[in-house]
Amino acid sequence: MNFPRTRMRRLRRTEALRGMVREHRLHRQDLVLPLFVVEGTGVRQAVSSMPGVFRFSVDQVVTECKEVADAGIPAVILFGVPEVKDARGSGADARDGITQRAVAAIKAQVPDLVVMTDVCLCEYTDHGHCGLVEGEQVANDPSVARLASTALSHARAGADVVAPSDMMDGRVAAMRTLLDDSGFDEVPILSYAAKFASAYYGPFREAAESTPAFGDRRAYQMDPPNRREALREMRLDLDEGADALMVKPALPYLDVLTDARRAFDVPLAAYHVSGEYAMIHAAAERGWIDGDRAMDEAMVAIKRAGADFILTYAAKAVAARLD
Protein backbone atom coordinates (compact mmCIF):
# COMPACT_ATOMS: atom_id res chain seq x y z
CA MET A 1 0.00 0.00 0.00
CA ASN A 2 1.12 3.55 -0.74
CA PHE A 3 0.98 5.26 2.68
CA PRO A 4 1.16 9.07 2.95
CA ARG A 5 4.43 10.63 4.11
CA THR A 6 2.52 13.47 5.74
CA ARG A 7 0.22 12.28 8.53
CA MET A 8 -1.57 15.17 10.18
CA ARG A 9 -2.68 12.99 13.08
CA ARG A 10 0.90 12.48 14.30
CA LEU A 11 0.74 15.71 16.29
CA ARG A 12 -2.76 14.94 17.61
CA ARG A 13 -1.84 11.66 19.28
CA THR A 14 -1.59 12.85 22.89
CA GLU A 15 -2.85 15.79 24.93
CA ALA A 16 0.72 17.01 25.42
CA LEU A 17 1.37 17.05 21.67
CA ARG A 18 -1.96 18.71 20.96
CA GLY A 19 -1.15 21.38 23.54
CA MET A 20 2.25 22.10 22.03
CA VAL A 21 0.84 22.88 18.58
CA ARG A 22 -2.42 24.52 19.68
CA GLU A 23 -2.97 27.70 17.66
CA HIS A 24 -5.38 29.58 19.92
CA ARG A 25 -5.68 29.53 23.70
CA LEU A 26 -8.35 30.92 25.96
CA HIS A 27 -7.22 32.71 29.12
CA ARG A 28 -9.09 34.05 32.12
CA GLN A 29 -7.96 37.52 31.04
CA ASP A 30 -10.07 37.11 27.88
CA LEU A 31 -13.35 37.03 29.84
CA VAL A 32 -15.82 39.71 30.95
CA LEU A 33 -18.84 38.80 33.10
CA PRO A 34 -22.12 40.69 32.52
CA LEU A 35 -24.00 41.48 35.76
CA PHE A 36 -27.54 42.75 36.37
CA VAL A 37 -28.05 45.13 39.31
CA VAL A 38 -31.44 45.83 40.90
CA GLU A 39 -32.77 47.81 43.83
CA GLY A 40 -33.02 46.40 47.34
CA THR A 41 -30.74 44.68 49.83
CA GLY A 42 -29.74 41.05 50.00
CA VAL A 43 -31.20 40.33 46.55
CA ARG A 44 -29.83 37.39 44.57
CA GLN A 45 -32.63 36.56 42.15
CA ALA A 46 -32.25 33.77 39.60
CA VAL A 47 -33.01 34.54 35.95
CA SER A 48 -35.22 31.64 34.88
CA SER A 49 -34.14 31.58 31.24
CA MET A 50 -30.40 31.71 32.03
CA PRO A 51 -29.34 28.98 34.47
CA GLY A 52 -26.61 30.21 36.79
CA VAL A 53 -27.34 33.89 36.12
CA PHE A 54 -28.75 36.19 38.83
CA ARG A 55 -29.95 39.72 39.40
CA PHE A 56 -28.11 41.30 42.34
CA SER A 57 -28.73 44.19 44.69
CA VAL A 58 -25.77 46.52 45.13
CA ASP A 59 -24.49 44.79 48.29
CA GLN A 60 -24.69 41.38 46.62
CA VAL A 61 -23.08 42.51 43.37
CA VAL A 62 -20.05 43.64 45.38
CA THR A 63 -19.79 40.13 46.84
CA GLU A 64 -20.11 38.66 43.37
CA CYS A 65 -17.39 40.96 42.05
CA LYS A 66 -15.02 39.83 44.79
CA GLU A 67 -15.56 36.25 43.60
CA VAL A 68 -15.00 37.32 40.00
CA ALA A 69 -11.70 38.95 40.87
CA ASP A 70 -10.63 35.93 42.94
CA ALA A 71 -11.35 33.74 39.90
CA GLY A 72 -8.84 35.74 37.85
CA ILE A 73 -11.47 37.36 35.62
CA PRO A 74 -10.36 40.95 34.96
CA ALA A 75 -13.65 42.71 34.23
CA VAL A 76 -17.42 42.92 34.59
CA ILE A 77 -19.99 44.93 32.65
CA LEU A 78 -22.98 46.29 34.55
CA PHE A 79 -26.61 46.55 33.48
CA GLY A 80 -28.71 48.59 35.87
CA VAL A 81 -32.41 47.78 36.29
CA PRO A 82 -34.16 50.63 38.13
CA GLU A 83 -37.36 50.22 40.12
CA VAL A 84 -39.01 53.24 38.48
CA LYS A 85 -38.93 53.84 34.72
CA ASP A 86 -40.27 56.68 32.60
CA ALA A 87 -40.38 57.75 28.96
CA ARG A 88 -37.17 59.77 29.29
CA GLY A 89 -35.17 57.13 31.10
CA SER A 90 -34.48 59.54 33.94
CA GLY A 91 -32.66 56.93 36.01
CA ALA A 92 -30.01 56.43 33.34
CA ASP A 93 -27.93 59.47 34.29
CA ALA A 94 -29.18 60.03 37.84
CA ARG A 95 -26.37 60.74 40.29
CA ASP A 96 -27.84 58.17 42.70
CA GLY A 97 -29.02 55.77 39.98
CA ILE A 98 -28.72 52.03 40.37
CA THR A 99 -25.75 51.70 38.01
CA GLN A 100 -23.93 54.68 39.51
CA ARG A 101 -24.30 53.31 43.05
CA ALA A 102 -23.16 49.87 41.94
CA VAL A 103 -20.07 51.26 40.19
CA ALA A 104 -19.05 53.27 43.24
CA ALA A 105 -19.58 50.35 45.62
CA ILE A 106 -17.61 47.91 43.47
CA LYS A 107 -14.69 50.27 42.93
CA ALA A 108 -14.55 50.96 46.68
CA GLN A 109 -14.34 47.25 47.55
CA VAL A 110 -12.69 45.68 44.48
CA PRO A 111 -10.60 48.55 43.08
CA ASP A 112 -8.48 46.48 40.68
CA LEU A 113 -11.48 44.94 38.90
CA VAL A 114 -12.26 46.67 35.59
CA VAL A 115 -15.84 47.93 35.77
CA MET A 116 -17.49 48.53 32.41
CA THR A 117 -20.97 49.98 32.10
CA ASP A 118 -23.55 49.43 29.42
CA VAL A 119 -24.75 52.80 28.16
CA CYS A 120 -28.28 52.54 26.80
CA LEU A 121 -31.76 53.73 27.70
CA CYS A 122 -33.70 50.49 27.19
CA GLU A 123 -33.34 49.37 30.84
CA TYR A 124 -34.54 52.77 32.08
CA THR A 125 -37.45 53.67 29.77
CA ASP A 126 -41.01 52.54 30.32
CA HIS A 127 -41.31 51.83 26.58
CA GLY A 128 -38.17 49.66 26.47
CA HIS A 129 -36.53 51.32 23.48
CA CYS A 130 -32.86 52.32 23.41
CA GLY A 131 -33.56 56.00 22.86
CA LEU A 132 -36.20 58.67 23.30
CA VAL A 133 -39.47 58.13 21.46
CA GLU A 134 -41.38 60.69 19.42
CA GLY A 135 -44.70 59.20 18.41
CA GLU A 136 -43.69 55.62 17.68
CA GLN A 137 -40.26 56.47 16.29
CA VAL A 138 -36.96 56.53 18.18
CA ALA A 139 -35.51 60.02 17.75
CA ASN A 140 -31.78 59.81 17.12
CA ASP A 141 -30.38 63.23 18.05
CA PRO A 142 -32.30 63.82 21.32
CA SER A 143 -31.36 60.28 22.31
CA VAL A 144 -27.67 60.94 21.70
CA ALA A 145 -27.69 63.82 24.18
CA ARG A 146 -29.26 61.60 26.88
CA LEU A 147 -26.79 58.80 26.16
CA ALA A 148 -23.79 61.12 26.42
CA SER A 149 -25.09 62.40 29.74
CA THR A 150 -25.45 58.81 30.93
CA ALA A 151 -21.88 57.94 29.93
CA LEU A 152 -20.61 60.97 31.85
CA SER A 153 -22.57 59.99 34.96
CA HIS A 154 -21.01 56.51 34.84
CA ALA A 155 -17.53 57.99 34.51
CA ARG A 156 -18.17 60.29 37.46
CA ALA A 157 -19.24 57.26 39.52
CA GLY A 158 -15.89 55.59 38.75
CA ALA A 159 -16.52 53.42 35.69
CA ASP A 160 -13.32 52.29 34.01
CA VAL A 161 -14.94 51.85 30.57
CA VAL A 162 -18.24 53.06 29.10
CA ALA A 163 -19.86 50.87 26.47
CA PRO A 164 -22.68 52.37 24.36
CA SER A 165 -25.03 49.67 23.05
CA ASP A 166 -27.89 51.80 21.70
CA MET A 167 -26.83 52.00 18.02
CA MET A 168 -27.80 55.66 17.65
CA ASP A 169 -25.82 57.48 14.97
CA GLY A 170 -23.17 59.84 16.34
CA ARG A 171 -23.35 58.74 19.94
CA VAL A 172 -19.64 57.88 20.22
CA ALA A 173 -18.59 61.36 19.09
CA ALA A 174 -21.02 62.98 21.53
CA MET A 175 -19.76 60.84 24.41
CA ARG A 176 -16.10 61.42 23.57
CA THR A 177 -16.62 65.17 23.41
CA LEU A 178 -18.57 65.37 26.67
CA LEU A 179 -16.18 63.07 28.53
CA ASP A 180 -13.15 65.00 27.33
CA ASP A 181 -14.66 68.40 28.10
CA SER A 182 -15.60 67.18 31.60
CA GLY A 183 -12.15 65.94 32.55
CA PHE A 184 -12.65 62.26 31.74
CA ASP A 185 -10.45 62.11 28.68
CA GLU A 186 -8.79 58.92 29.94
CA VAL A 187 -12.04 56.91 30.14
CA PRO A 188 -12.16 54.60 27.10
CA ILE A 189 -15.24 53.92 25.00
CA LEU A 190 -15.99 50.33 24.02
CA SER A 191 -18.55 50.70 21.25
CA TYR A 192 -21.15 48.08 20.47
CA ALA A 193 -20.32 49.03 16.89
CA ALA A 194 -21.89 46.08 15.06
CA LYS A 195 -24.97 45.18 17.08
CA PHE A 196 -27.46 43.20 15.06
CA ALA A 197 -31.25 43.07 15.47
CA SER A 198 -31.03 39.49 16.66
CA ALA A 199 -33.45 36.84 17.89
CA TYR A 200 -30.84 35.81 20.49
CA TYR A 201 -31.58 38.58 23.01
CA GLY A 202 -34.75 37.15 24.55
CA PRO A 203 -33.40 35.96 27.92
CA PHE A 204 -31.56 39.25 28.43
CA ARG A 205 -34.79 41.17 28.07
CA GLU A 206 -36.29 39.13 30.89
CA ALA A 207 -33.32 39.93 33.13
CA ALA A 208 -33.17 43.64 32.20
CA GLU A 209 -36.95 44.14 31.91
CA SER A 210 -36.30 45.83 28.57
CA THR A 211 -38.71 44.26 26.08
CA PRO A 212 -40.06 47.03 23.80
CA ALA A 213 -43.64 47.98 24.63
CA PHE A 214 -44.31 48.42 20.90
CA GLY A 215 -42.54 47.65 17.65
CA ASP A 216 -38.99 46.34 17.66
CA ARG A 217 -35.42 47.62 17.33
CA ARG A 218 -34.80 46.84 13.68
CA ALA A 219 -34.95 50.50 12.68
CA TYR A 220 -31.70 51.21 14.55
CA GLN A 221 -29.96 47.88 15.19
CA MET A 222 -28.25 46.25 12.21
CA ASP A 223 -30.01 44.04 9.68
CA PRO A 224 -28.60 40.48 10.13
CA PRO A 225 -27.86 39.87 6.40
CA ASN A 226 -25.54 42.90 6.18
CA ARG A 227 -21.84 42.12 6.47
CA ARG A 228 -20.18 45.06 4.70
CA GLU A 229 -22.34 47.53 6.57
CA ALA A 230 -20.88 46.25 9.85
CA LEU A 231 -17.44 47.43 8.79
CA ARG A 232 -18.87 50.86 7.91
CA GLU A 233 -20.41 51.09 11.38
CA MET A 234 -17.10 50.14 12.97
CA ARG A 235 -15.08 52.58 10.91
CA LEU A 236 -17.46 55.41 11.76
CA ASP A 237 -17.21 54.68 15.48
CA LEU A 238 -13.42 54.61 15.30
CA ASP A 239 -13.45 57.95 13.50
CA GLU A 240 -15.70 59.33 16.26
CA GLY A 241 -13.25 58.28 18.98
CA ALA A 242 -14.06 54.71 20.01
CA ASP A 243 -11.13 52.93 21.65
CA ALA A 244 -12.40 49.38 21.14
CA LEU A 245 -15.16 47.74 19.09
CA MET A 246 -17.69 45.02 19.73
CA VAL A 247 -19.63 42.52 17.61
CA LYS A 248 -22.93 41.33 19.07
CA PRO A 249 -24.08 38.53 19.02
CA ALA A 250 -20.91 36.47 18.70
CA LEU A 251 -21.39 32.99 17.19
CA PRO A 252 -23.88 33.88 14.41
CA TYR A 253 -21.56 36.73 13.32
CA LEU A 254 -18.09 35.17 13.45
CA ASP A 255 -17.59 36.19 9.82
CA VAL A 256 -18.14 39.83 10.80
CA LEU A 257 -15.72 39.45 13.69
CA THR A 258 -13.04 38.01 11.39
CA ASP A 259 -13.63 40.80 8.85
CA ALA A 260 -13.15 43.33 11.65
CA ARG A 261 -9.97 41.65 12.83
CA ARG A 262 -8.50 41.95 9.33
CA ALA A 263 -9.66 45.54 8.85
CA PHE A 264 -8.89 47.18 12.20
CA ASP A 265 -5.85 47.16 14.44
CA VAL A 266 -7.79 47.94 17.62
CA PRO A 267 -9.03 45.76 20.49
CA LEU A 268 -12.10 43.73 19.51
CA ALA A 269 -14.75 42.30 21.77
CA ALA A 270 -17.57 39.89 21.05
CA TYR A 271 -20.68 39.39 23.18
CA HIS A 272 -21.74 35.76 23.65
CA VAL A 273 -25.32 36.81 24.31
CA SER A 274 -28.08 35.44 26.48
CA GLY A 275 -29.73 33.32 23.80
CA GLU A 276 -26.44 31.68 22.84
CA TYR A 277 -25.78 30.89 26.50
CA ALA A 278 -29.32 29.66 27.17
CA MET A 279 -29.38 27.32 24.16
CA ILE A 280 -26.29 25.45 25.34
CA HIS A 281 -27.75 25.05 28.82
CA ALA A 282 -31.13 23.93 27.48
CA ALA A 283 -29.57 21.26 25.29
CA ALA A 284 -27.28 20.11 28.09
CA GLU A 285 -30.19 19.81 30.52
CA ARG A 286 -31.85 17.44 28.06
CA GLY A 287 -28.70 15.36 27.72
CA TRP A 288 -28.29 16.22 24.05
CA ILE A 289 -24.80 17.73 24.37
CA ASP A 290 -21.95 18.00 26.85
CA GLY A 291 -22.67 21.51 28.10
CA ASP A 292 -19.20 22.29 29.46
CA ARG A 293 -17.43 21.16 26.30
CA ALA A 294 -19.91 23.01 24.08
CA MET A 295 -19.46 26.23 26.09
CA ASP A 296 -15.68 25.96 25.98
CA GLU A 297 -15.80 25.28 22.25
CA ALA A 298 -17.94 28.37 21.74
CA MET A 299 -15.41 30.51 23.61
CA VAL A 300 -12.49 29.16 21.56
CA ALA A 301 -14.41 29.75 18.32
CA ILE A 302 -14.97 33.39 19.25
CA LYS A 303 -11.31 33.82 20.19
CA ARG A 304 -10.20 32.09 16.97
CA ALA A 305 -12.38 34.40 14.89
CA GLY A 306 -10.52 37.43 16.23
CA ALA A 307 -11.89 38.58 19.58
CA ASP A 308 -9.42 39.95 22.11
CA PHE A 309 -11.97 39.54 24.89
CA ILE A 310 -15.38 37.94 25.27
CA LEU A 311 -18.42 39.08 27.21
CA THR A 312 -20.13 35.92 28.43
CA TYR A 313 -22.46 34.83 31.22
CA ALA A 314 -20.35 31.67 31.41
CA ALA A 315 -17.21 33.56 32.44
CA LYS A 316 -16.95 32.12 35.95
CA ALA A 317 -17.67 28.55 34.88
CA VAL A 318 -15.27 28.74 31.94
CA ALA A 319 -12.54 30.32 34.09
CA ALA A 320 -12.84 27.49 36.61
CA ARG A 321 -12.01 24.96 33.87
CA LEU A 322 -8.95 26.80 32.58
CA ASP A 323 -5.44 25.87 33.68
Overall form: globular
Number of beta-strand segments: 12
Element-by-element helix/strand order: HEEEHEHEEEHEHEHHEHEHHEH
Kindly name the structural category: alpha/beta
Query: In angstroms, what separates the terminal alpha carbons?
Result: 43 Å
Mean pLDDT: 96
Q: Based on the structure given, which CATH architecture is correct?
A: Alpha-Beta Barrel
Written overview of the protein:
The structure is a single chain. This protein is α/β, with parallel strands linked by helices and 323 residues long. It has one domain (24-321): TIM Barrel (Alpha-Beta Barrel). Helices cover 38% and strands 18% of the residues. It is built from eleven helices and twelve strands. The protein has helices at 15-20, 58-70, 98-109, 140-157, 171-181, 202-208, 228-240, 254-263, 274-285, 291-305, 315-321; strands at 31-38, 44-46, 54-56, 75-81, 114-119, 132-134, 137-139, 161-164, 190-195, 244-248, 268-272, 309-312. Strands 1, 2, 3, 4, 5, 8, 9, 10, 11 and 12 form a ten-stranded mixed β-sheet that branches. The chain has a two-stranded antiparallel sheet with strand order 6-7. A hairpin with a 2-residue loop joins strand 6 (132-134) and strand 7. The chain starts with 14 loop residues before the first helix and ends with a helix.
